[in-house]
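Hi! If you just cloned this repository, the fastest way to understand the data is to look at a raw example. We've pasted two of them here, unedited. The first protein comes first, obviously.
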Amino acid sequence: MDHWQRVDAALSGAPVDRPPIALWRHFPDDDQDPGVLTAHSVAWQQRWDFDLVKFMPSGTYGVEDWGAVSAYDGQANGARVVVGPRVRTTDDWRAIGDLDVRRGSYGRTNEALAATAKALGGRVPILQTVFTPLTTARKLSTDRLYADLRRSPDAVHAALEAITAVTIRFALDALAAGAHGIFYATQVASYRLLSDAEHDEFGRRYDLRVLEALAGRARLSMLHVHGDDIHFDRLAGYPVEMINWHDRIARPTLREAAQRSARLLVGGLNENGPLARGDLAAIRAEVTDAIDQTGGRRLMIGPGCVVPIRVADAAIETAIRATHDAAGRA
C-alpha cells in the first residue's frame, strides 16, 4: 500500500498491510522563517517517510498578530511560549478583532504550508495545525481566561466570535494552499480547567463552527485533545476522521477508546517516556501493545503530542521498524 491507500483503509477499518505511523516535532526559532521551516518539514518527511505529515508551525502563530509576544525558552519539545500576553485585563478582550490571515504570522504559516505541500506533491496526507478558538483565547490571555469567562462571559464571547472568524478563514486558506485537512488542537478540554457546561458554551460551540465550515472541503482531519482528564466522550463525536490524545498517560486507553469511538485512533507512543529516553525495547513494546489493544484496526501509531526535538534517530527508527514488523497482524 502507498500512504494514501494505507490511511484510507485504516480510516474505514479495513485490513491494512501494516498500521500507518506518523511522528511530528517542532523546529524552534527556524519555524519563524517560512523558507527554513519548509526545508525542515520536507527533509523530515523525506528522512522518515511517514504515512501522514502533521505540519509544524510555531505553536504561537495564532496569537502574535493580535499583539502577543512569544519566545522559545529552551523547552525540550521545542514549543514557543507566550511571554507577553495581549489580554492582561478584562477590558483587553475588546481589542481582539478581525485580522487579515494572509499577512503577518498567519500569512507566513500558510506560506510555509503551501511550499511544503507543493514539494511533497500530494503523495502523503498533510494537515495544517489549527488551534481551537478557546485555545487561542487561552494563549492570548494565559490563565486569566478562566476567571473572565466566568465573571465577564460577554467579553470573552465577543473575542471568541472574532477568533472563530479568523480561524475559519485561515483554515480554508490552508486547504486552498494544499493541506488535505487540519490538525485541530485543543489545550483546554480538560476537567481540570472547565466543566462540561463551560466547555460546551465557550469551546464546543465555536469548535463546531470551524469544523462545519470545512465540511466537504477537508478530506481528513485530526482532533488533538491535550492534557489530562480530558472531555473525551464529548469531543469524540466531533466531525473529524481521527482523534489523538495522551493515551499512555491519560484515560481513555486505546482499548477503551476503540469501544467508545469509530474514529481512527492516533497514539500508542509516550513521547516523553521511551521515545525521549531512547529505550528501544520499550518503544517496540508500546507499538506492539497499541496494536494488541485495537486489533490493529482504525489505528495510526503516533505520539500523544509533539516528540522532543532531541529524540534519537534510533528511537524513531525503532518505532517505524516495530510498526512495519506488524505486517499481517492488522
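Ok, and the second one:
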Amino acid sequence: MQVENFFWMIFFLAFPAFTLYLGSRIRLVDRIGVIVICYGMGVLVGNSGVLPAIVKPLQESMLDVVVPLSLPLIFFQMRIQNLRNLAKVGVISLLAGLVAVTVGVTLGFFLFKDLIGEESWKVAGMLIGVYTGGTPNLAAIGQALQISQSNYIAVHTADVLTGAVLLLFFMTLAKPLFRRFLPIYIGGNQKSLEARENFSTYFSGFQRQHLWPLLGAWALAVLIVAIGGGLSYLFPKDLQNAVAILSITTLSVLLPANTNIYKIKFTYQSGFYLLTVFSFVISTLADLSAIFSAALPMLSFVALVIVITLVLHIFLCRLGGVDVDTAIITSVSFFYSPPFVPMVAASIRNQDVVLAGMITGVLGWIFGNYLGLAVAYTLRSIS
C-alpha cells in the first residue's frame, strides 16, 4: 500500500472513531447523531478537492468490506429465542409494521419511479430496509444492490430530514392522537433496563477484560463474511452482492441461537462503528450536485412512504387490538432501530414497553434485509 493511501485509510478510520468519542461525551454531538456528522463531513471532504484521485480504489475497497463485516457484529447481540418474550400484541404490531412498510414503499415506488429514475427499485429496497431496522439495513441493502453513492446519500439525507420531524411527533403528539383510536396500555415488564443497556452505541465502560473476547468475535465475523462471500460466487454476477449479504445475515443470526457469543460485550458497538466508517467513506465519494438534483423527488418519495406506512400501521394495530404504547414503540423501533426505543419510551412515560420495542427492532434488522431485497427485485421485474 502506498504511503499516501495508508494515510487516508487511517483518516477514514480515525474520524468516525473520534466522532463516536465526542458523541459519548458531548450531548449536542449525540443529539445531532454520529452518522449524520460523518455524512456531512464526508460530503465536505469529498467535494473540497483535497482527496487525490489515487485514493478512490481504497475508498471503494473499504466500502466492500465494512458493511458486510458490521452485520455479524451487530447480529451477535441478538437471539431468536427472545421472540418468546414478545407478547401477542407485540407480534401483531410487528407483522402490521412489515405489511405497512411493504405497501407504503410499493405505492411510493409506482408514484415516483419516473422522477427517481432507473435506480428507483433500489431506493425502494433501501427504504424497506431503513424502515424495518434503520441504518444497518439501509447500508446493507444499498451495498447489496450497488446503488450509486449520490442516490445513497440522497436517500439518507431525505430520511434524516423527514425522520427528525417524525421523531418529534412520536415524542410529543403521537400518544394523545393515537389513543383516540387505540386501547390504553395494560401490563408490565421488568427487563427494560437490560434491553436498554445492550444497545448503547458507544464503548462506555469498556475494560481490558473485554478485549480478547471482542477480538474473537471480530475474527468470527471475518470468517462469516468469507463464507458468505464464497457462497455468492455460486450465483450469477448480478446476484452475488445480494446473496453475500443474505448469507452473512443468515449465518450471523443463527450463530447466537446456538452459542454464547451474544454474551460478548461491545459487538454491537463495533458493528455500529463500522457503519460510521461506511457513512463517512461513501459520502466522500458523493457528487454534491447530483445529491441536490435528486433531493426534492427523493424527499417527496420518502415523506409519502413514511405517511402511508405510519397510517396503515396504526390502522392494522387497531384491527389487531394493539395498545397505543406498544404501537408507538414498535413503530419507533422500525423507523429508527432499537437504540432510539428507550428515549421515546421515556417521552411517552412507559419504560415497560422498552423490551417489546427492542425485540421488534432486532427482528426488523433480520427481516429487513430479506424483505428489502425481495421487494426490490420484485419491483424491478414488474416495472
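That's it. A detail worth noticing about the second one: The radius of gyration is 20 Å.
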